[in-house]
Design goal:
single chain; mainly beta; Trefoil (Acidic Fibroblast Growth Factor, subunit A); 14-stranded antiparallel beta sheet; 1 helix; globular
C-alpha cells in the first residue's frame, strides 16, 4: 500500500500531483468533504473531465466532457459543501448537496436550460471563478445507505433543474477529438452512475488527509 499524508497547512494540489504518478484509488471507507477525486462512469469507462475550452454553441461556457485516460490531470474535482454544511473530512451523506470544483480551472460543475451540443439533452458546463458560482452549481448526491462509500456507485441530480449527470454516448470531433459528451439526462440510468476513483481522501480534522492505495 502507498499512502501519502498531508497536514491541513499543505496545499491539497501537492498530493493531487503525486497521485498522477502512483495511480492512487480509494476503494474502502467513505468519500469525504474536501476530498479531490476523479469520477468514473462505469457504463462508458470514462472519467469526468474539463479544461479551458469553451462550448462553440449553447452557453459558451467552459466545456465538461469525459475521457478514457485514467492519468489525465484535468479530471480532478474537489467536493465542496454549500455554505458550511460540509466540513473537511466529514463523510458525504446520501442526499447531501455538493459543489464539484474543477481543480485546474477553479470552475464549478454547472447545468442550466441550454441544449447540449451533440445529444440535445441539457448542457453541463463549468462555471464561476475561484470556486465561486451560483445556485446552478448545486448537485444532490443520490446513493443508498447513510453515506457515499468509495466502493459504491452514486448519481448526481441537479438541484434546480432535476436532470442527472450523465454520459450521453456521443463523441466529439476536433478540437477535443475522442472525448465523450457529458449532459443532463431527464431520468437516471446506467449512463448516470459514477464512482470515486483516484484522489486525495481527507480524514477528519486534527487527523491527516490520505491517499489510499491502488
Amino acid at each position: 500500500m502507498d499512502v501519502c499524508f498531508v497536514t491541513w497547512s499543505i496545499h491539497l494540489q501537492v498530493c493531487v500531483w503525486l497521485s498522477l504518478f502512483v495511480g492512487i484509488r480509494g476503494q474502502e471507507g467513505t468519500v469525504t468533504c474536501g476530498s479531490v477525486v476523479k469520477l468514473l462512469n462505469g457504463k462508458h469507462d470514462v472519467r469526468l473531465h474539463s479544461h479551458d475550452v469553451k462550448y462553440g454553441s449553447g452557453s459558451g461556457q467552459q466545456s465538461v466532457t469525459a475521457v478514457k485516460e485514467a492519468d489525465d490531470g484535468n479530471s480532478y474535482w474537489r467536493l465542496r459543501g454549500v455554505n458550511a454544511d460540509c466540513q473537511r473530512g466529514e463523510p458525504v451523506a446520501c442526499g447531501q448537496v455538493l459543489r464539484l470544483t474543477h481543480m485546474n480551472t477553479g470552475r464549478n460543475l454547472h447545468s442550466h436550460h441550454f441544449s447540449s451540443p451533440l445529444s440535445g439533452q441539457q448542457e453541463v458546463s463549468a462555471f464561476g471563478e475561484g470556486g465561486e458560482g451560483d445556485q446552478l452549481d448545486h448537485w444532490v448526491v443520490e446513493c443508498s445507505g447513510k453515506h457515499w462509500r468509495r466502493s459504491e456507485t452514486v448519481k448526481f441530480k441537479h438541484l434546480v433543474t432535476g436532470v442527472w449527470l450523465s454520459v450521453s454516448g456521443e463523441q466529439y470531433g476536433r478540437p477535443i477529438s475522442g472525448q465523450r459528451e457529458v449532459s443532463g439526462a431527464s431520468s437516471p440510468s446506467q449512463h448516470s452512475s459514477w464512482k470515486a476513483m483516484e484522489g486525495v481522501f481527507l480524514q477528519a480534522q486534527a487527523e491527516h488527509a490520505s491517499h489510499t492505495e491502488l
